[in-house]
């Protein structure tokens, strides 16, 4: 039995090592995150770009509701816009439905963000990440923008009718949102894959 223990250990180490190699963020994916945004699900605290562990993919997709979102450097008197999108719909090699809008909340007070509360006007209710089977890893991006004073941010009727093929850049431009003050992303794939 003592002879088998080192062999069993090497087999386990080999399996773990392969898993880690297959799921390493590219430098481009890792560089997306900036600005101290934190997204918290019940068993998962995301404060840097990462790949969702296989053991948590079903919870992220099927069980957990909208996460808490913290922005510790939010200015209490400013208002913010939170966007969550999938730029890889239906898959990363042919994102014909990008950007797929998972969540859009406007009029968020900075004081609420400092406490991890998303209190504002929900233009698109939270929809969890549900990448199609066999579509590989998808990026789920959270972007936080300062909302210009007196801006009434809204969606057009066409945008309200569909979450997919959202012209995200046109939305940013039309409301003069500029660059995001903070960004965060995670990658996940269908939990059955």
Automatic annotation (TrEMBL):
Pfam families attached to this UniProt entry: PBP (PF01161)
Keyword Signal included in the entry's annotation: yes
Signal peptide coordinates: 1-20
Nucleotide-binding as UniProt keyword: no
CDD domains per record: PEBP_euk (cd00866)
Keywords from the UniProt entry: Signal
Matches recorded under InterPro entries: PEBP, PEBP-like_sf, PEBP_euk, Phosphatidylethanolamine-bd_CS
Domain of life according to the entry: Eukaryota
Homology family: Belongs to the phosphatidylethanolamine-binding protein family.
Protein name per the record: Phosphatidylethanolamine binding protein 4
Organism: Astatotilapia calliptera (Eastern happy)
